[in-house]
Amino acid sequence: MESLCMRVNNMTYEVCSHVELIPPDVQTIIQPQVNWLLNWKVLIETFLPACCVVFLGPWSDAHGRRPLIIASLLGKSHPKSKKISISNTV
Asked: Which domain of life is it from (predicted)?
């Protein structure tokens, strides 16, 4: 929400980081956009893994579970994977 606030009205981080300091007219502009982003985030976080399970389940039965476990651990431990957030996509 902070980055959206800063981009919409060119406000400083100090103002945008405190929700109570954001003027109500700016909040009415920002809230629908934040809501839209959060809805897409939930959809991606639930639908994408569900689709992967359909394909990766049979693959792991044939090739073993170790490659998938190692790949998920490498992805989780990668330094840039921790910096990716929904606020960077706005």
From this structure: Eukaryota
